[in-house]
Specification:
41% of the residues lie in helices and 23% in strands. The chain has three helices and five strands, in the order H-H-E-E-E-H-E-E.
Length: 151
């Protein structure tokens, strides 16, 4: 994953551990003070929120424990690889698109980042400028030509 993606995950984890988790624990304590726990909706809702939050924290901790930050200076720019920006043309309608191939945890279509595990990225991997690839997507088969590759 990129350094930017790694730093973002670390910030999200710190936010959950240092801000959100104490708030949930405080809500549990307040609900507990209201008396009978068997019929206390606020208590049960706060406990469910705590379990959900702890699950998200454990997931992010596992992702960070197994993450490797890639130094893009050691990657070549002659083929499509992780963390490179690819300009492609859809040959069916001549529309141009630009995507950055990212780790699944950094993928965000609004930012133009597609997961390396997506069908389009898998078809583009290790291809060069000028190559035409066919990609099976839910709408059918796309024919794409690689116009440019940048780091």
């Amino acid at each position: 994953m990129s350094q930017e993606g790694f730093d973002k995950l670390v910030a999200e984890l710190r936010q959950m551990e240092n801000v959100e988790l104490p708030q949930v624990r405080e809500a549990i304590a307040e609900a507990r003070d209201k008396g009978d726990l068997s019929e206390n909706f606020e208590y049960h809702a706060a406990k469910r929120e705590q379990a959900r939050l702890l699950g998200r924290i454990r997931f992010k901790q596992r992702v960070l424990a197994n993450a490797r930050v890639i130094d893009t200076s050691h990657l070549g720019s002659d083929t499509v690889q992780l963390l490179c920006n690819v300009e492609i043309t859809n040959l069916a309608n001549n529309s141009k698109m630009s995507y950055t191939i990212a780790s699944p945890h950094e993928a965000n279509l609004r930012e133009g980042k597609i997961s390396i595990k997506s069908p389009i990225a898998e078809a583009l991997l290790n291809k060069k400028v000028g190559d035409v690839v066919e990609v099976r997507v839910p709408a059918g088969i796309l024919r794409l030509r690689i116009e440019n590759i940048q780091r």
